[in-house]
Design brief:
This protein has 496 residues and is α/β, with parallel strands linked by helices. The chain has 20 helices and eight strands. Strands 3, 4, 5, 6, 7 and 8 form a six-stranded mixed β-sheet that branches. Strands 1-2 form a two-stranded antiparallel ribbon. Helix 8 runs antiparallel to helix 9. It is elongated and about 100 Å long.
């Protein structure tokens, strides 16, 4: 695990906008801290691509990437993320990890992967684009092939081939490590003129809690977004492996483990971390059956720090290619296209999130918030219509509402009753059949009470039919002393 974790951590720190060696700090203590609280025996904690990109997006407007202020803010952001996850876990609300709908995550993940690839393309090809934006810099790189560094292109192509092709040879072949070794040897034996990793401090990281706490208000919203979005990958990994092993898994406990990992990263000069799908899969295939696999990997990273200077000559093109190879599979355009055949509203949510993520870069956390808002709006739009079926015979007016009776749809019930009473002014009895209602909230119960009061004022005898079991308590409290208790089956009409 350490052989994969070390080079990946360097690459993801570069992606997050930090000096690459800070990735070692984020790969050292976090997996050790997570091991004490983790629920999944396979989840590997440390730097990951999506969280690194979110970190860059959150901090780029506040400080110059790779500067001292940027490094300090990254550590503070890790503490904010850690506290958020810790609170969510201790409150046992791990279910909030599933609040983001699949279309939102699909659109965001695909667009974010494109941004990751675009951000690393100039590094992989050894150029310094004139356009400073992520997509603009990638486009400038593509249309100026004459500026590409030949050695960087070869190293990048070889790295991608080793990372992607190595998996086909054997799942445990450390293609990332092989690429790093080749890059270091190549840089030492040749006159490589491209950018390299540079000086790597040896020894322990700068442990500190003296961060710029005045910046916390600016980091609260992006920190919460990272806490939730970054946990989605860890939740997917853990739940998938738990299902395959037919073993229990506790998302709240995993929130605590990921929270402790981020706190450890923040006090040791790191940045926000999460659960890695690729490293977790490697750990499982390598025979790891205990959460201490990650802790041992972290200890090995710690043991590597005194000799970390050996990678100072590593070409940055290798790191850029490692990131590209790691996220290219996340660009899932086919699932996005298939959504149009399944649901147009959900397709609009996914593609809107996709487009906003690209347009709002580097503040991609805002795209997630808009996507979640669209998903909630579509959900409310679907829940608002309350279909009311009616039947009138022998002086009995029967209304049967269908849908969800909540604060948004309750006015429709009252309007429907007034319309039907006006159309059937000879009715002397009203039967309200509730069997088609999926849920009734407090406002909906008050709406029913208002319907009953209006009907009684119109001299109608009122009865309920099929009161749902889940609604008996709230209706009983709203109606007070009424025949809505448990003493008779709900199929029997009950007078108010």
């Amino acid at each position: 695990m350490a052989l994969v974790l070390i080079p990946q951590s360097l690459a993801y720190a570069e992606l997050a906008g930090l000096p690459p060696y800070h990735g070692l700090y984020a790969a050292m203590l976090p997996p050790i801290a997570a091991a004490f609280f983790a629920s999944s025996p396979y989840l590997q904690t440390g730097p990951v691509a999506m969280t690194s990109l979110l970190t860059f997006g959150a901090l780029a407007p506040l400080a110059t990437p790779a500067s001292g202020d940027f490094v300090a803010l990254a550590a503070l952001l890790a503490i904010v993320v850690g506290l958020a996850r810790l609170v969510l876990g201790m409150m046992r609300v791990g279910w909030v990890a599933y609040l983001m709908s699949h279309p939102v995550l699909t659109g965001f993940t695909s667009a974010a992967a494109i941004l990751v690839i675009a951000s690393q393309l100039p590094t992989a090809l050894g150029v310094s684009p004139a356009d400073g934006s992520v997509l603009g810099g990638a486009w400038w790189t593509v249309v100026h092939p004459g500026a590409w560094d030949g050695a960087s292109v070869i190293l990048s192509a070889l790295t991608v081939a080793l990372v992607l092709g190595g998996r086909r040879v054997h799942a445990l072949l450390p293609g990332v490590l092989v690429a790093v070794v080749i890059g270091v040897v190549f840089s030492l034996l040749t006159d490589y003129g491209g950018p390299t990793l540079g000086a790597v401090p040896t020894g322990l990281p700068p442990f500190s809690i003296g961060h710029s706490w005045q910046a916390v208000p600016q980091l609260l919203l992006p920190g919460l977004v990272i806490a939730l979005v970054g946990f989605a990958e860890a939740a997917a990994i853990s739940s998938t492996f738990a299902a395959q092993d037919r073993a229990p898994w506790n998302p709240s406990r995993e929130f605590v483990s990921q929270g402790m990992a981020n706190l450890a990263s923040g006090i040791s000069g790191g940045f926000p971390v999460g659960g890695s799908f690729s490293r977790s899969s490697v750990a499982r295939m390598a025979g790891g059956t205990s959460r201490w696999t990650g802790a041992i990997a972290g200890l090995l990273v710690l043991a590597f720090l005194p000799i970390a200077g050996v990678i100072s000559v590593l070409p940055l093109a290798i790191l850029g290619a490692i990131v590209i190879a790691a996220v290219v599979k996340l660009v899932a355009l086919r699932p996005l296209l298939r959504l149009f055949g399944h649901s147009y509203p959900q397709a609009i949510i996914a593609w809107s999130t996709f487009a906003l993520t690209l347009a709002l870069a580097p503040r991609i956390d805002r795209a997630i918030l808009v996507g979640v808002g669209l998903a909630v709006a579509v959900h409310l739009w679907r829940e608002l219509p309350l279909r009311v079926h009616t039947d009138f015979r022998d002086g009995v007016l029967r209304i049967e509402p269908e849908g969800v009776l909540f604060f948004g749809s309750s006015p429709g019930l009252h309007e429907a009753l007034l319309k039907e009473l006006a159309a059937h002014n000879t009715a002397d009895r009203l039967v309200i059949d509730l069997r088609r209602l999926g849920r009734i909230d407090y406002t909906g119960a008050l709406a029913l009470k208002g319907v009953v009061d209006d009907a009684q004022q119109a001299q109608l005898e009122v009865a309920f039919l099929g009161v749902p079991q889940h609604a008996r308590r709230i209706l009983g409290r709203v109606f007070g002393d009424s025949p809505l208790g448990e003493d008779k089956p709900p199929e029997i009409e009950r007078r108010v």
